[in-house]
């Protein structure tokens, strides 16, 4: 079964750091671009970051650029998001999502269950 | 403020047909980038519903269909069922090198 399982969320103070992980299984992880997408409480989906299959290229939303770092370990089939200088507005459920292949490369075809990040004092 | 614009809510009775619009601009949908749709049932993660404007992943009923023209796209749901009650999001790619979503539409089955 193709699966993504996030972990690492929790409560952190403003200005603090947190690292999220996403364990992939059921597919050849090193073949796919991977993304992080977040959803604030009662709000819509917002794309956060993308990394390509061999980690040579990354992209970030302007709202997190310079604060968040996406990286991956293909040997461990794991995607990460290092979040520094966290702000209250970063409070959200963070989903990892797999990019499709070929003609569906710009979709998010598999999603994890999400991990909640709360930034509050 | 989302880059793609969707109506906040739509509703319909069981068995009816509803449509959800998604309006973009010349830097995303109008630039030729595909539109994709996701269904998010209450308390769950989003699920890919339609990809590349009008294609259904395996397992998605043919009651769901998508279309695209110029700078907009639409999702149509026919034969509405109680289980279709969910939030629906459109998504595309933008020339600013970012992936963009609509603000989401809450479907209520009356």
Structure characterization notes:
- In chain A, strands 2, 4, 5, 6, 9, 10 and 11 form a 7-stranded mixed beta sheet that branches. Chain A has a 4-stranded antiparallel beta sheet with strand order 1-3-8-7, with no helix packed on it.
- Chain A has no helices and 11 strands.
- Helices cover 0% and strands 50% of the residues of chain A.
- Chain B has 110 residues and is mainly β.
- In chain B, 0% of the residues lie in helices and 45% in strands.
- Chain B has strands at residues 9-12, 18-23, 36-40, 47-50, 64-69, 72-77, 86-94, 98-101, 105-109.
- The radius of gyration of chain B is 13 Å and the shape is globular.
Descriptive tags:
heterodimer, A: 121 residues, mainly beta, 7-stranded mixed sheet, 4-stranded antiparallel sheet, 11 strands, 50% strand, globular, B: 110 residues, 6-stranded mixed sheet, 3-stranded antiparallel sheet, 9 strands
Short structural description:
The complex is a heterodimer of chains A (121) and B (110). Chain A has 121 residues and is mainly beta.
Write the layout of secondary structure elements.
The complex is a heterodimer of chains A (121) and B (110).
Chain A: E1 3-7, E2 10-12, E3 18-25, E4 34-39, E5 45-51, E6 58-60, E7 68-73, E8 78-83, E9 92-99, E10 108-111, E11 115-119
Parallel strand pairs in A: 2-11
Antiparallel strand pairs in A: 1-3, 3-8, 4-5, 4-9, 5-6, 7-8, 9-10, 9-11
Chain B: E1 9-12, E2 18-23, E3 36-40, E4 47-50, E5 64-69, E6 72-77, E7 86-94, E8 98-101, E9 105-109
Parallel strand pairs in B: 1-9
Antiparallel strand pairs in B: 2-6, 3-4, 3-7, 5-6, 7-8, 7-9
The rough form of chain A would be described as globular
Strand content of chain B: 35-45%
Query: Biggest sheet of chain B, in brief?
Result: 6 strands, mixed
Which structural class best describes the helix and strand composition of chain A?
Answer: mainly beta
Instruction: Report the span from N to C terminus of chain B.
Output: 28 Å
Pick out the low-confidence regions of chain B: none
